[in-house]
Amino acid sequence: MSGRLLGFAGQWPRLLVLGLGVMALASVAKTAPAFIGLGIALLAVLIGLGFGYRPRWDGVEIIVAIIALWLTTRLLLQQVGVGDPDLLRPWHDFTDWAWLLTFVALGAGDTDPVQRVRLLWLLAMGGFALGVAGYFVAVGFEPLLAGERLGFHLRRPLGVGLYAGAFLLMVLFTAAQWWTVRGRLRFPARVLGTAMILQCFVVLVGAQNRSTWLGLAIVGAGAVIGIVARAVKTHADPRRRLAAVLFGLLLVIGIGLLVKVPLETRTSGESQALTTLLTEGLGDAPATPITIRLRLWSFVLTQFPQAPLLGQGFGKLEEVLERELRHGAPLQQDERQDHVHSTYLQVLYGQGLIGCALWASLLLLLLRDLTRAARRAPEIRRLLPATWAVLAFTGVWALTDYRLSHPDMLFFSILLLLSLRLLGRSSDSSRPPPPQGSRTGTQSSPEAQGHVDSQPA
User: Fold this and answer.
1) C-alpha to C-alpha distance for 414 and 394, rounded to whole angstroms
2) How many CA atoms lie within 13 A of 372 on its CB side?
3) pLDDT, tens digit (0-9, with 9 covering 90-100), for 200-216
4) How does DSSP assign 182-238, residue by residue?
5) Which one of 30, 229, 432, 442 has the fewest CB atoms closer than 10 angstroms to its CB?
6) pTM score, whole prediction
């Protein structure tokens, strides 16, 4: 019996992959199954720790431990009165941020990191496709044709628009890989890739989320400039340069035509507000999504000097914003804001400069590991364009929309952080292999060791 139990425990890396797969597949449509998958994956890591797996304690794991300590400290300070007392449900907001840090544990195991990243995002795209199809089967296409906002992710369009934009960029920036697949998978790969592009466009138009369009426009413009610059630098055929420019123009025009009607719908009541904003100032402008965002951002900047290092603490901002803004600057009558529509300003308001510095350090360390790994591994270099595109898109989106720790976006953020972690793990190839017979929970194959020895120092 003990031998069977040990044999089962030794399979914890497979259990980890299973849990991550469940999380990725369910992340778009439902949060409950996604949390179950996350729980299975974390349970597998705990089994691995008991079976001999040990953390690396590299730069990423150290900064994650520091962030976890900081989040806990900030919550405890809030409990003794250091912060705004009108913040609601601080514990729930704290746990949202804490869940993000689980990505570092989910990177455990010795499975091929590149293959694991591909599998996770393919499963996430599969769950996205099933969720979209299920939504249209349930409600029909009438909302889309009538110009209404889609809301199949928790009845909200926000999270699904972020997923759709990221998936679209992933598929477009890896087109050279899936379009040129050989053998029996060639036709299915082309069909599925094209179908995903079309489905993402439909969702982006129906979600009517202007932050996604802004992010896609900036990434698209940067990609076109990069293609043209590379063509000029490499003295490519002028016809290829012209084709790249025409492709970029057609892409921009096509997206413009697709979003014209929903964009007019979303901005129809804002032209007068913008005119008033420019002529008389923000204080006299009526309440619209744009002017409300500007007021929220202005509120954070005015509150910043009160707690520059520690911030005001965790929690929803309904009561704070009602107290500070409702009478001094108009908000929409039947709408209560619980956040400031910017991940960066939300961190600044709640966690101060200390929190901003720690989260920025984490991202910089992940990007450092990624670029180091790309210099060693051609398969990671091939994924860099898609990775940079998704990161840029997410960065723009987070500038003007929900915080990335919100339940609508939580699993997207975990997948993105985990992907950066896994892709950067090939920098471990510069380390000597563990001694034979060491208890790591998995065994290195001779082929894998040969691959490590072949890497340049």
Assistant:
1) 13
2) 16
3) 988 888 887 888 888 98
4) -GGGHHHHHHHHHHHHHHHHHHHHHHT-HHHHHHHHHHHHHHHHHHHHHHHHTT--H
5) 432
6) 0.85
